[in-house]
TrEMBL record:
Listed InterPro entries: RT_dom
Protein name: Reverse transcriptase domain-containing protein
Reverse transcriptase domain ranges (all copies): 1-79
Superkingdom, natural source: Eukaryota
Biological source species: Parnassius mnemosyne (clouded apollo)
Length: 498
């Protein structure tokens, strides 16, 4: 007999009436009335539902009887003489898709959108894991339909690496829960609970009786292989991602010894940009944007000309668009470079009392010279020297008067494979200028500070170290990375729209 959240088992109708009257008496004592519309009885004989009469209450009224085709929603699970697995799966998937559509229509940023899916949509399915039978094929179909829905709302590129969807954001993924693994973990957890209750005779009996009757299959639990740990699972996913010839290039770039992996994935971890922009940037990193080179050699659409649609000189690869096109160098790349320089210039100006407060970098117009009693700050100014110096115009020059110390700052935003080369070139480029400044201005120290990060947001360890030397916080580094990512996605969008 089902009574809302109470289920009563009895050997026959006489015993059921006895238990019902006991429950009825208890309910009367606490002044709780029976909701007859929520109560049903069912008579099962040899795995078949047999017709029976309803059960009469002492206080009046009769509890109805369930037939062969009726089901009762007990604790959220549709039941009859057995759990209706197929019907429950269909209903749960329908509710899951409804919630997923609602979340994707909300306009949340990347991080919050994934968090909403993990905490509001996926728990609809999670509640049934370990109770309802889910095959790997069915769960894989749900994951595939999820990616299709993400693609429909422009949150995910259809050709992006599948592994990144369920990898943690701190590891370079999108942070969505892996539904298949979640189901396997919950089944294993329930199975472990029953097997650990050795002192309970009830649990022992249930374990011995479950011969493939439930998803847990407790009788054969010893023969079921245990799951890998979360750390092993993540490492396997990372290896699978890195092993791909095209998608794996970015994963391998992240593992280079000069790269700060945590900082490089910080934009994903904080997730402050729109989900659509986030998905677009991930597609750029995975090198699956529809450039002419990609369409010719990867998709093989049959086009013969893969030259850049702007400069018409080199093959149009994603690297060429983000940091190698001569036509874009004087406009788009310069704007991206200047946006980073503005963030640093403004931070130094406030730090040394040259400005009172900051403003959004896209509104900020740096003054060529800022000066007070303790510091001088120059923006894009040539340095006059006695001897001719070829490279005499760093992006920013900071002079600390009391310490007699000068900082030569130069910003660079190359493609990922050129990061280390850029750092070395910047150090060598201003070596002669540093010597001239030390002698002419009688400075005790002249520091060359290259501030380099890649067009796709990869942060070398030297960037964090150099910003720390200038007294600039990690917060500003994150701001710089976000600015570069927004500008890079805008450059690629505009280029491919031609």
């Amino acid at each position: 007999m089902y009574m809302d959240d109470i289920k009563i088992y009895a050997a026959n109708e006489r015993e059921l009436r006895t238990l019902l009257h006991c429950t009825e008496q208890f309910s009367s004592d606490i002044n709780m009335s029976f909701g007859l519309e929520k109560c049903r009885t069912m008579n099962v004989y040899r795995r078949r539902i047999e017709p029976s009469t309803g059960v009469d209450l002492q206080t009046g009224g009769t509890i109805g009887v369930m037939t062969e085709n009726d089901t009762y929603k007990y604790l959220g699970i549709l039941q009859s003489h057995r759990i209706q697995h197929g019907e429950i799966r269909s209903k749960m998937i329908e509710v899951y898709n409804q919630r997923l559509k609602g979340i994707l229509s909300s306009g949340l940023n990347g991080r919050n959108l994934v968090k909403a899916i993990n905490t509001f949509a996926i728990p609809v399915l999670t509640y049934t894991f370990g109770i309802v039978n889910w095959s790997d094929t069915e769960l894989e179909r749900v994951e595939r339909s999820t990616r299709v829905m993400l693609t429909k709302y422009l949150v995910h590129h259809p050709k992006s690496a599948v592994e990144r969807v369920t990898l943690p954001r701190a590891k370079g993924g999108r942070g969505l829960i892996d539904i298949r693994r979640l189901c396997a973990k919950q089944v294993q957890s329930l199975r472990s609970y029953f097997l650990s209750r050795t002192s309970s005779s009830l649990h022992h009996v249930v374990t011995k009786a479950d011969d493939r009757l439930t998803t847990l299959d407790l009788l054969h639990a010893d023969n079921i292989q245990s799951l890998e740990t979360d750390a092993e699972y993540k490492e396997a996913k990372l290896r699978q991602w890195a092993s791909k010839p095209l998608h794996g290039r970015f994963a391998n770039e992240l593992t280079q010894p000069y790269v700060d992996i945590e900082a490089s994935n910080n934009w994903l971890k904080h997730g402050e940009i729109f989900a659509e922009t986030e998905g677009f940037m991930v597609a750029i990193q995975d090198q699956v944007m529809p450039t002419k080179n990609y369409l010719r050699f990867i998709v093989k659409t049959g086009i013969e000309d893969d030259q850049c649609r702007r400069c018409h000189q080199k093959p149009e690869t994603i690297q060429h668009i983000t940091g190698g096109c001569q036509v874009l160098a004087g406009t788009e790349y310069t704007q991206r470079h200047d946006n980073v320089a503005k963030i640093i210039h403004q931070e130094l100006a406030v730090q040394h009392g040259l400005l009172k407060e900051t403003e959004p970098y896209w509104k900020y117009n740096p003054s060529p010279v800022l000066e007070n009693d303790s510091a001088q700050l120059y923006w894009d100014r040539s340095v006059l020297t006695d001897r001719t110096v070829e490279h005499n115009r760093p992006d920013i020059i900071l002079v600390e008067k009391e310490e007699k110390r000068t900082w030569l700052l130069d910003i660079g935003i190359p493609n990922s494979h050129n990061v280390q080369k850029y750092i070395t070139e910047k150090m060598v480029k201003y070596q002669r200028l540093a010597e001239e400044i030390r002698q002419l201005r009688r400075q005790q120290q002249v520091h060359i500070v290259p501030l380099i990060l890649s067009t796709t947001g990869i942060v070398p360890k030297s960037l964090t170290e150099n910003l720390a030397k200038l007294g600039i916080s990690v917060r500003v580094r994150n701001k710089i990375q976000k600015a570069v990512i927004l500008d890079t996605t805008a450059i690629v969008r505009r280029h491919l729209s031609i």
